[in-house]
Amino acid sequence: MAKGSKQLHLEEYLYLPGLTHNSAIIAWGGFYFKVKGDPDEGKWEIVDDSGLPRTDRSRPGSIGVRAKPYGPQAKVYVFEAGTPPRQPIYVGNANYAWVRGLAPDTEYRYRVLVQDEAGNETEWGAGPLRDWGFKGERGGLYEKGGKYENRFRTFPAPDASVPDLTFAILGDFGRGVSKPSKGEVCQREIAETLRKAVDSRDVRLILTTGDNIYRGSGQGSGDEDDDWFFTYFQPYRYIINRVPVFASFGNHDEGESEDMDDRDQLYDNLYVLTHFTMLRDRHDSSIDPGLFYRVRYGSDIEFVCIDTSKKGLFGKRFFRMKNNEEFLDRAFSMAAPPRWRIPFLHHPPYCAGPQHVNKESVEKSLVPRFKSGGVRAVFSGHEHNFQHSRDAGVDYFVTGGAGKFRAEAPDKDWYERAKTQAWGGNDEGHFLLVEIRDDRMTITPCGNLAGGKLRSIGINVVKGDASVPPFFVNA
Question: Is 317 in the same domain as 233?
Fold first, then answer.
């Protein structure tokens, strides 16, 4: 390529936005880049949605439910590990396939072949893949040996007692990796640690405690597809193609703290509405206004997503709206409760700061439901550190340091009101690795890798067990 010349590059992505015990949603899409000069030495710039190629201008973006199909037809092959591919699923007018009739608790592999206008088929995401990296301070897409391993394992059947599970929780992570990490910004490092955990610890799913994307982090406002490249699809590229992500909303997703509302874009890119429309007989939900749903993992474990955000600065919080009361009544009923009922949400009922403290409305409205509903552990975000509180036999964990940690310590004056047991994460980021084995839950706040190995962040004990981490909760 001549020096100074430009070309257009499409980087292809695959992901698994929906999963149950007998079905899955497999999705594909991509991001366009302008490349000036040699691809390995030149300047890379992501293409804004408004600047997509002429043939693609009718699409509102390049990835997600609404994206224009990349070809007139696609074939999706799904097959059990060690067996030949079965009859493909033919897809037209969409960039995703709803795969049904799968066996519970079974590992599958998959391939996606997309046909172009001339009838030629190519395998999506076959590579060679390019990932965002740096040469000095300059960022670009470079061949770094990345390769998709397209596999997933279905959940156990709803009536199967499988009380063993490892999952991860990300909070307040959407800061972006367009630039090298500096100061308190840590999304790249924590994403690398999460990938290590997925590879080595059989992580089966990921929860988020909100603030999935931020405005003003160098990646855009959050309301266009290209804004999600640096904050979601690139950092977790080799995770989300095999592990489903179940998201909750935070104030930065809803527009409480900024001018733009990213809810519609999160619905689009993470297939939230599609998931609970197609799989509504598998998961209970209450959506729009708000995002509330339950995900069952066998008969012993259930996750409950609660929307603690509100519409704008002066709106009513969604969990206090009448249309969602029926869902909350069902979700915390003691009629045939699972062994583990695990709520995840953004605003914490108990928190000692330093910037955010107890959310009074959450404490008053939801804590009584947790206490009477058989809950033993609750996970939230919002504050950019790690905190552990305990109240009336329920353990509360704040995990908001997966994108940027807060260097200041919590406010000691709030320890009693926040029922603080321990805290950490003021000198590095973290996510939570959670392991359930029968009647015991183990929670480890994992920080940066050390010699390629998982390790916990440092913990400051306020009261209780001085030997932590990890933290233990009993059902």
Answer: yes
